[in-house]
Amino acid sequence: MINEILPIVLVVCLVVLTIVLVVVAINLIGVLVESKKVLRKANAVIDEVEHKVTAILNPFHSLSAFITNFTAGLKVAEGFMSFVNKDKAKIKQTSDDDKTE
């Protein structure tokens, strides 16, 4: 009697497990398809936000370049002024030496 029931139970278990696995696989495919749609939408939103942020930050990049160039200009002016003052000091020292002689 056990020899007759065992194959039937095994076949029933195998059929039930196969059906459950097929249902799980179908649900998994559905979840993956939905997650792909969500990721596409999220990617589109991120791209849009990235373009807006870039548009907002562009003036600040220009301001940064202006400040850098302005600082470089000030250094050039400072170097020129120190050169002019050095010549003035040299001329003054020469005239002081002439007065003392």
**What's the order of the H and E elements?**
H
Number of helices: 1
- What is the CA-based Rg, rounded? 42 Å
Category from helices, strands and their pairing: mainly alpha
Number of strands: 0
Q: Helix proportion of residues, in percent?
A: over 70%
Fold and architecture overview:
The chain contains 1 helix and no strands. The mean pLDDT is 85. The protein is rod-shaped and about 130 Å long. The longest helix is centred in the middle third of the chain and has 99 residues. The chain is an all-alpha fold. It has a domain of 45 residues.
Q: Features of this protein?
A:
single chain; 101 residues; mainly alpha
Structure summary:
This protein has a domain of 45 residues. It has 1 helix and no strands.
Element layout with pairings:
Elements: H1 2-100
